[in-house]
């Protein structure tokens, strides 16, 4: 399914800097009320929190795949319709929504041998190359639409772009945008860097500059390699929220509430992965963050099903 909807074009507001939050990926977790509410309160409101001397306006853009072709490893899979996203859209009030295909046909670049893009690398298994390409392409397409089509039509100049997966939740309020150094990419401290990053508009596309580009040709005058030093922000603590089938509850050592509906499973936060990155970067924060994540895990485990609030 490929369709778009748009709210009235945002107007530049005097005295404010403008940022675009791009939620890009599968809609599977975003249809759960608890996930959408967390993103609104912790991410959107956190980024836009004013500080003396600097005020930001954050516009939300949804680039969603409603159908799923890559649900594996015992996870729940759904083919959603746009109706299931209405409640979340009402909360997030996106400026623009685009429903994207679940996958894209890979297109090879004319790269010299050994300089192939990351998705086409010999180190990547052939059976997952198409999935990686689709993820990279979807992100690039979202950036390109924002900067080449939407921005000039709306008459708004975005000073910052935030790319985030729609299936991650935040354990604490994300710092306000005024705290970020936009000359470099900033990522979450608790998950893979490509789950969330903040960057200036010159570095458009996936955080991995070789995701679609030939190695050695991934930087330019607008996005210089010398400035592209990834920073992991301890104030951004996120974990993936996955819908799991009830049959995996015992294996995952959780006790979901009993529900009449068999259409959905339960939300599971991947807290066990948190310390793999955080422990290397900020070892003093690991115990507190794990404790916080486990408290969130219980809350999301018991959260209402989609369409019930």
Write the layout of secondary structure elements.
Layout: E1 3-6, E2 17-26, H1 33-47, E3 56-65, H2 86-92, E4 96-100, H3 126-154, E5 160-164, E6 168-170, E7 186-188, E8 196-199, E9 231-233, E10 238-244, E11 266-269, H4 274-281, H5 286-301
Parallel strand pairs: 2-3, 2-5, 3-4, 7-9
Antiparallel strand pairs: 1-4, 5-8, 6-10, 7-8, 10-11
Helix pairs in contact: 1-2
Give a quick set of tags describing it.
19% strand; 11 strands; 2 domains; eight-stranded mixed beta sheet; three-stranded antiparallel beta sheet; alpha/beta; 24% helix; 309 residues
Describe, in short, the structure shown.
The chain contains five helices and eleven strands, in the order ββαβαβαβββββββαα.
Which strand order spans the largest sheet, edge to edge or round the barrel? 1-4-3-2-5-8-7-9
List the total number of helices.
5
Strand content: 15-25%
Gap between N and C termini, in Å? 26 Å
Task: Write up what this structure looks like.
With 309 residues, the chain is an alpha/beta fold. The chain contains 5 helices and 11 strands, in the order E-E-H-E-H-E-H-E-E-E-E-E-E-E-H-H. It has 2 domains: 3-233, no CATH class; 238-301, no CATH class.
């Amino acid at each position: 399914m490929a369709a778009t909807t748009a709210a009235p074009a945002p107007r530049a507001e005097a005295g404010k800097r403008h940022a675009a939050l791009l939620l890009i990926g599968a809609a599977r977790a975003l249809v759960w009320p608890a996930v959408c509410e967390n993103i609104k309160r912790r991410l959107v409101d956190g980024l836009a929190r004013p500080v003396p001397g600097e005020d930001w306006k954050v516009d939300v853009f949804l680039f969603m795949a409603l159908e799923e072709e890559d649900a594996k490893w015992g996870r729940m899979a759904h083919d959603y319709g746009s109706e299931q996203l209405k409640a979340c859209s009402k909360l997030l009030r996106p400026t623009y929504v685009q429903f994207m295909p679940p996958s894209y046909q890979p297109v090879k670049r004319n790269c010299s041998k050994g300089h192939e893009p990351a998705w086409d690398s010999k180190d990547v298994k052939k059976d997952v190359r198409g999935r990686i390409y689709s993820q990279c392409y979807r992100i690039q397409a979202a950036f390109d639409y924002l900067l080449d089509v939407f921005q000039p039509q709306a008459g708004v100049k975005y000073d910052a772009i935030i790319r985030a997966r729609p299936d991650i939740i935040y354990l604490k309020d994300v710092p306000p945008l005024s705290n970020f150094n936009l000359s470099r990419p900033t990522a979450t401290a608790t998950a893979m860097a490509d789950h969330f990053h903040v960057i200036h508009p010159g570095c458009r596309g996936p955080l991995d500059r070789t995701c679609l580009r030939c190695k050695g040709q991934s930087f330019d005058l607008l996005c210089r390699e010398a400035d592209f030093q990834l920073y992991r922000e301890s104030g951004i603590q996120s974990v993936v929220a996955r819908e799991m089938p009830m049959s995996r509850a015992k294996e995952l050592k959780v006790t979901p509430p009993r529900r009449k509906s068999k259409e959905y499973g339960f939300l599971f936060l991947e807290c066990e992965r948190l310390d793999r990155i955080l422990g290397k970067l900020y070892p003093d924060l690991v115990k507190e963050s794990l404790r916080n994540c486990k408290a969130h895990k219980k809350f999301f485990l018991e959260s209402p099903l989609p369409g019930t609030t």
